[in-house]
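Forwarding the complex inputs:
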Amino acid sequence: MLRLSPEQMAERVAQDIPDGAYVNLGIGMPTKVSNYVSGDKQVIYHSENGILAVGPAPAPGEENPNLINAGKQYVTLLPGGCYFDNAESFAIMRGGHLDIAVLGAFQVSARGDLANWATNNDKYPPAVGGAMDLAVGARKLFVVMRHTTRDEEPKILEECTYPLTGTGVVRRIFTDLAVIDVTPDGLRVVELFGENTFEEVQALTGARLLPPA
Amino acid sequence: MIDKRVASFKEAVADIPDGASVMIGGFGSSGIPLKLIESLRQHGAKGLTIISNNAGVAEEGIASLLRDGLVSKIVCSFPRSAGSKWFEKRFEEGSIELELVPQGTLSERIRIAGAGIGGFLTPTGYGTRLAEGKETKIIDGKGYVLELPLPADFALVRAECGDPWGNLIYNTAGRNFNPMMASAARVTIVEVNSIVEVGGLNPEHVVTPGIFVDRLVAEEVHHAQA
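Prediction (whole assembly, two chains):
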């Protein structure tokens, strides 16, 4: 089977980000998406700590310790960008002003429930950050994740077994095998990568899939 | 005459008692009042409740308060980060209580505490473990969680520049939680890089009105002008 690399997955997500979109990219693989958004599109990136129009990393020696993104990496501000406090930043998120958020996930359910902030290991200290706010607030929530765990256990399930981040919030799932939409009828495969077949992808999925329309 | 400047970081935190609740501004490395935190650590008040987005990394900031055993509870959205070893150690040994709050709920609870509002309904966290035990309400088919204000005894705030009345401007994304914390504590103590004379800040640029600020201390010592 064809399994996309993390870079190829980010590239595939980038194709679905339209010109003019206001976008929040989660920490980790989602952050890579901006590397692949084509230069003829104008996309404005929001960072939860209070930035619109986040720019690329600064040149060495030009870092400002105050000017970081949600992943605590140094960034810059593009012309036209602005700063605001955390309450206003989350009003932007919760208030439905962002067109798209891209998040990673541990699990997604058949109804679009998202689990991405905690496992069932209570000894490990939890952290939630802005994940729950983004999950409920963005107009469209994209998830980008490997289709299975490293042990080949499915991550797309009838019901999540990990603690939920939000219920019924995921719109589209980009995995290393396929693109899957969460629809009122169920999970519909909209794209299979390479020669991957519907049956192969279904076999690695813990919920019933609908074939491409 | 209103002059909120104090002479030293030590003096600025000298009356914080054991058991106080203390908000601390900052997000990651950004907008943290590191000198005020260091003075608080040296002051040595114990049994503190710390309200902040993160729990500090390495030996710096909130991590140093955790290391020295001064914290009994932390209210936080993202306590675990690369290098947050003192938080992880205190959590694993069970010596601190953690109240985990989604980030936007944390900032809004602080904001409404400063705004005199008794609670708000947010969709964030609805149907999740973090809403367990909380009142919920369905409005137009959408689920909401009732969240209550989060005030504190003291706020330690970091800004770029202030004036003797306490008006503040910030540096880039360094404002983060600082403006709403300034409004939500009984006593707000601000660390700034520099202090200008009254009238020296462009009123169109002031982010935090001085009415929210009680004490102002500069990184570089400026002698008071009459």
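Helices of chain A lie at 6-15, 86-94, 131-137, 198-203.
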